[in-house]
């Protein structure tokens, strides 16, 4: 059991394992009894996937447009390299194993619970980054509160790991983030 600092208090969280299946998981329970699970789903990202997100309208890239030509060049090269990537997702889990409901938003929760959730997910992300070997992490958000949180997460990863960031809005209007090790593209 590890602890996240949440204001003047601490929030315990647990690493549930799953690395061997490519999906490390963490869990925690908020002070009001909500059970959350944080997933890191491993996948092999093709740089063409990022290109396709913004291909119709590159002006929707909010940050990182300078990396787009390099990804486009890789896509056109026909090499189709892949980058070891983790996708971050967290969700409220209600019910039991046989009849559980999964909610990806934190709507209809008091502000103090939202803060508690975000602070704990941040601590889990820091713990994950210190233990995992990866070249990139991605996440997306449709709701403004999660977009604001992910803006913070992306900046934190860039600062602590000296990674690069591409973020913007995809064709569905979701804000997408791709934070990557610049060496992962140079090695391709």
What is the CA-atom radius of gyration, in angstroms? Answer: 17 Å
Structural class of the helices, strands and pairings? alpha+beta
Distance between the termini: 38 Å
Sheet-strand content, in percent, reads: 35-45%
Question: Which sequence of SSEs, written as H and E, runs from N to C?
Answer: EEEEHEHEEHEHEEH
Characterize the main sheet. Answer: 10 strands, mixed
Give the number of helices.
Answer: 5
Give unreliable regions as ranges.
Answer: none
> How many separate structural domains?
1
Strand element count: 10
Question: What is the averaged pLDDT score?
Answer: 79
Principal-axes shape call: globular
Helix content: 25-40%
Structure overview:
With 188 residues, the protein is an alpha+beta fold. The protein has five helices and ten strands; from the N terminus they run ββββαβαββαβαββα. Strands 1, 2, 3, 4, 5, 6, 7, 8, 9 and 10 form a ten-stranded mixed β-sheet that branches. The chain is globular and about 50 Å long.
In short:
The chain has 188 residues and is α+β, with helices and mostly antiparallel strands. It has helices at residues 47-54, 68-77, 111-131, 144-161, 182-186, and strands at 2-6, 9-17, 25-29, 35-45, 61-63, 83-96, 99-103, 136-141, 164-169, 175-180.
SSE order and pairing:
Blueprint: E1 2-6, E2 9-17, E3 25-29, E4 35-45, H1 47-54, E5 61-63, H2 68-77, E6 83-96, E7 99-103, H3 111-131, E8 136-141, H4 144-161, E9 164-169, E10 175-180, H5 182-186
Helix pairs in contact: 1-2
